[in-house]
Amino acid sequence: MSLRQLHLLGSPVLRQRAHEVAGVDDGVRALVADLFETMRAANGVGLASNQIGVARRVAIVSVQDQGEHVLVNPVILETDGRQVGEEGCLSIPEIFADVDRAERVVVEALDESGARRRIEASGMLARAIQHEIDHLDGILFLDRVGPLKRRRLLADWKKSRKGEDGYLKDVVPEDSAKLG
Ligand SMILES: [Zn+2]
């Protein structure tokens, strides 16, 4: 298990559609362990493999009082209702915006043992699951806000980088963010 570097906005892997996993093997379990270690160190509530540079359909979510879930090859079967709430992303630190999501989702995925699980989620957990599955499809929460708002957020992002280049960030446990 190891702490991985985070890929930040601008890294091409964040825009890739991640590949299905053929089977849950030790390699997938090691990836899941790295996702958990990195997410916890960064105080996230979810993390997708793209964010640590791996384009495979493996993500995790961890929402207080709603449990931890491993999502291998997740598929959304049902969505219901609507919620609007603030999101952030470990790949776009310090940038937050209100995002429209389904209030409730039913998702089917494999867990780290390879068992097929059906997860019914609402509220924050449903939001986190939708955010992470978006990552696996190369979609970022900034894509889900209006064009004017997005332009402003991107300007804030550029300013916050203070001329830094490169798309990799070491995780230090003081970091925090609202969403993976
Ligand atoms: Zn994210």
Key terms:
180 residues; alpha+beta; Peptide Deformylase; five-stranded antiparallel beta sheet; two-stranded antiparallel sheet; 3 helices; globular; binds zinc ion
In short:
This protein has 180 residues and is an alpha+beta fold.
Topology of helices and strands:
Blueprint lengths: L5 E2 L18 H16 L4 E3 L9 E6 L3 E14 L2 E5 L9 E5 L2 E7 L5 E7 H14 L10 H15 L6 E2 L11
Antiparallel strand pairs: 1-9, 2-3, 3-4, 4-7, 5-6, 7-8
The chain binds zinc ion.
Can you characterise this structure?
This protein has 180 residues and is an alpha+beta fold. It has a single domain (6-169), classed as Alpha-Beta Complex (Peptide Deformylase), CATH 3.90.45. 25% of the residues lie in helices and 28% in strands. The protein has helices at 26-41, 123-136, 147-161; strands spanning 6-7, 46-48, 58-63, 67-80, 83-87, 97-101, 104-110, 116-122, 168-169. The strands form 3 sheets. The chain has a 5-stranded antiparallel beta sheet with strand order 2-3-4-7-8. A two-stranded antiparallel sheet has the order 1-9. A hairpin with a 5-residue loop joins strand 7 and strand 8 (116-122). The chain is globular, with a radius of gyration of 15 Å.
Bound molecules: zinc ion
Described by strand count, sense and barrel closure, the largest sheet is: 5 strands, antiparallel
* CATH structural fold name: Peptide Deformylase
Shape: globular
Seen as an oligomer or otherwise, the chain set is single chain
Q: Give the name of the CATH superfamily.
A: Peptide deformylase
- Poorly predicted regions are none
Number of β-strand runs: 9
**CATH classification, class level:** Alpha Beta
Number of domains: 1
Which structural category do the helix and sheet elements fall into? alpha+beta
Q: Radius of gyration, rounded?
A: 15 Å
Strand percentage, roughly? Answer: 25-35%
Per DSSP, the total helix count is 3
Sheet with most strands: strand arrangement: 2-3-4-7-8
